[in-house]
Amino acid sequence: MRKITIAIDGFSSTGKSTLAKQLAKELEYVYVDTGAMYRAVAYFAMKHNLISAEFFKKEALIEALSDIKLEFRFNTDLGFAEMFLNGENVEKEIRTIEVSNFVSKVAAVSEVRAKLVEQQQEMGTNKAIVMDGRDIGTVVFPNAELKIFMTASAETRAQRRFDELQQKGDNVTYEEVLKNVVDRDYMDTHRADSPLVIADDAIEIDNSYLNKEEQFAAVLELVNDVVKLD
C-alpha cells in the first residue's frame, strides 16, 4: 500500500492533534504537531522576556532563533512524541493558556515561520507522515495527497479547551478561554504571512457535533480512498 502525506489544518481547539495522532497510530505513520513547535518558540520568548501583554520584542526573537533547538522525542509510555526545547521537555509548559495567548503573535513572524517550515518539510521527505497545523496543506505540503480542514463553532471549541484545562488543574474561566479562541482565530486568519485559509483541494470537516470516534472513522475512510488510487 503506497505511503502518502496527510495535511490537517484548521482553527484552534478543533481536535486536529487528536485526529492526527489517531491516524498516525492506525497507519503507522510519523506524526508531527507543528502547533507544538510554534508554542515552544512562544514559550522561549516568554522565558526570555521577549513577549508579554505589554510588549513584543520581535527583532530580538528573530536574532535568538539560532539559539532555539526543537525536537520531538517519542515517549513509549504515552504513545506519542513530546516537544523538547533546547534539550528540555516542555510538553506541559507549552499547553498553558498563557502560551496560547502569545502563540499566534509569534507564529505571524515571517522569520519564525521560515525556520519551522523548513524543518517540517524535511520531516516529510519520505511521506508516510501526518502533520497538523495552520498552513500544512497550503504552504508546507501543497502537494499532499490528502488535505483536511477542520472547523467548529468558537463556543464549542472554547468549551472543549476549557474542559481540557480544567482537567489539568489550570485556573481559568470559560470566558477567558472563549476570548483566546476568538482572538487566535482573528490573528491566524489575518496575518500577512501564510494566513489560515482552506486549500482549494482540502476537504472541510465541521466536527461541532461529531465525537472523536465518528470523526476518525470518516477521515480514515477518506485516507483509504486516496491510498487505493492508482
Automatic annotation (TrEMBL):
Superkingdom as given in the UniProt entry: Bacteria
Compartment(s) where it occurs, according to its Swiss-Prot or TrEMBL record: Cytoplasm
MF-aspect GO terms: ATP binding; dCMP kinase activity
Catalytic activity: CMP + ATP = CDP + ADP; dCMP + ATP = dCDP + ADP
Keyword tags: ATP-binding, Cytoplasm, Kinase, Nucleotide-binding, Transferase
Gene Ontology process terms (BP): nucleobase-containing small molecule interconversion; pyrimidine nucleotide metabolic process
Binding positions for ATP per the UniProt entry: 10-18
Record Pfam families: Cytidylate_kin
GO cellular component entries: cytosol
Presence of keyword Transcription: no
Assigned protein family: Belongs to the cytidylate kinase family. Type 1 subfamily.
UniProt protein name: Cytidylate kinase
Source species of the chain: Flavobacterium nitrogenifigens
Highest classification ranks of the organism: Bacteria, Pseudomonadati, Bacteroidota, Flavobacteriia, Flavobacteriales
Protein encoded by which gene: cmk
